[in-house]
Amino acid sequence: MSKPYVIGIDIGGTNTVFGIVDARGVVLASSSIKTAKHSNINDYIDELHGELTRMMEVNDVVGKINGIGIGAPNANYFTGIIEDGVNLPWPTPIPLAQMMTDKFGIPTRITNDANAAAIGEMTYGAARGMKDFIMITLGTGVGSGIVINGQVVYGHDGFAGELGHVIMKRNNGRLCGCGRTGCLETYCSATGVARTAREFLEIRTEPSLLRDLPIESITSKDVYDAAVAGDKMAKEIFEYTANILGEALADFTVFSSPSAFILFGGLAKSGDLLMKPLKESMERNMLKIFKGKVKILPSELKEADAAVLGASALGWEVKPL
Amino acid sequence: MSKPYVIGIDIGGTNTVFGIVDARGVVLASSSIKTAKHSNINDYIDELHGELTRMMEVNDVVGKINGIGIGAPNANYFTGIIEDGVNLPWPTPIPLAQMMTDKFGIPTRITNDANAAAIGEMTYGAARGMKDFIMITLGTGVGSGIVINGQVVYGHDGFAGELGHVIMKRNNGRLCGCGRTGCLETYCSATGVARTAREFLEIRTEPSLLRDLPIESITSKDVYDAAVAGDKMAKEIFEYTANILGEALADFTVFSSPSAFILFGGLAKSGDLLMKPLKESMERNMLKIFKGKVKILPSELKEADAAVLGASALGWEVKPL
């Protein structure tokens, strides 16, 4: 029988957020440490262990933790190893699941952050009861977690679901961090929106509130604020973004025929500015047999808790030690 | 306990091929009837029943059939219904699985032809032992059957895996039978290769063996024969085709990270003319973490038996009546 609580840990390039969660998705307590404070991974795990031990004691859950779930960049679900952690301060590969299991005496599973978000959404959020959906995380990059028949798709090597790197522009596409050009995430991430803003400002001539800002430091938030203030160019930047994302979602649909796409991350909170042209674009580009069948929904996880909740859901999947 | 034989039926627009298969994939007997001979579906099923009953009697397998598996266009695995059989002579929807079960007294499952091919390849062919692979059928169109974690992907509505309708050219793409433009199958099917040949012949000026043929009746087989005879333009038509298919396979890889793509159909038998530039294109377009990991393999099912074998494998999945 499983124990009544799980621990969720989200390891980002800047912060590591963690918390204790119950079976209904209530976060009993959460906190964070700086990911880059320790150049030695063992020191980092020691600090995490100290913080979480105190948290478990205060909340009276010592011995009641079923498992630890961790979301981290390039974390391989199958091997428990962070294989190439570009944004993390430690040399890779890192056998993190084993190191954490040894340190805490609690079984630990890891996966990448977008898969963790998908599991969280399925366990506690907008995808409860759905067997086939695709989580799209619109952050600094574009990530994805694909669920088919109730199971996260990991692929033969644990790295499936890199939908941010589908090629959307085969000619004259933007250079991506992956070294190729035209990837979805160069257009539809928060940074992609900022790049679009800079392109629009350079190429177009009409006035815009965005022209009051230093062009190199424009963010997707600036574009959002301008659009909300009624700026025409800012709205068109959202339409441009939505159009490409809609093309991508239509293509993804022919692969796994999901009942919904669930959008997570800052851009997903842009409301109708993004959602309205996105739904129109997806339907316009959709193969006929799928038209009108696929929902686009915003995440239902509370933002402050989402990363911890998503990771924590993995804590229900562990095998006892 | 399952019975020792299954029946496989492949319903194509022209012919319906059927046979009796054992657990090791040996086809005991096979035959065919004309699909379009009967304008009434009941008459068609009657003829099929007569032919198969005789075949079961001759081979002494009456009462020993575990199930009937059928591959047919737009056949829905979940509902057992052919929902919109564009190439079939009967009004749709057709509750084919139930009609066959009633007529034969043998449990029947149906799926589309590409999914049947994937199941056949996994049960008897090149994908034995593989848990994650994608079957690509290169015929009149481009079909696909996606297997993830040992299971065919049907999606929320039974229609997943329409990879022939991923958009490869977003500008100036070829018109597809689906009503949209730029679909993979307008470039990489047998008819796509013939279209490419016509485009090359019109736009280019160099000599080619293909210029000896009436341009409107050129087939992919003509292009293959010319390439084998050393024709430079014909070889470049294969390279053009392979380049686009390789781009598509690289995109598909980020979705489900398969260990292999298995190619089936006439074009898949073009050997190095297709395979060499295809592998090069896929690797060139591949996201770094997947480079060198994904195989491209030709189907191992004997062509004459492949359709029947693929469909028959479904006969092992049925529930007893």
Structure description:
The structure is a homodimer of 321-residue chains. Chain A is α/β, with parallel strands linked by helices and 321 residues long. Helix content of chain A is 36%, strand content 19%. Chain A is built from nine helices and twelve strands. Chain A has helices spanning 41-58, 96-104, 113-124, 185-188, 190-203, 220-228, 232-256, 272-285, 303-313; strands at 5-11, 15-22, 27-34, 65-71, 75-76, 81-82, 108-111, 133-138, 142-148, 151-152, 260-264, 295-298. In chain A, the strands form three sheets. A five-stranded mixed sheet of chain A has the order 3-2-1-4-7, with helices on both faces. In chain A, strands 10-9-8-11-12 form a five-stranded mixed sheet. The first copy, chain A, has a two-stranded antiparallel sheet with strand order 5-6. In chain A, strand 8 and strand 9 form a beta hairpin. In chain A, helix 5 packs across helix 7 and helix 7 crosses helix 8 (272-285). The A-B interface holds A 84, 130-132, 146, 148-149, 151, 153-163, 165-171, 178-180, 247, 250-252, 254-259, 285, 287-290, 293 and B 84, 130-132, 146, 148-149, 151, 153-163, 165-171, 178-180, 247, 250-252, 254-259, 285, 287-290, 293.
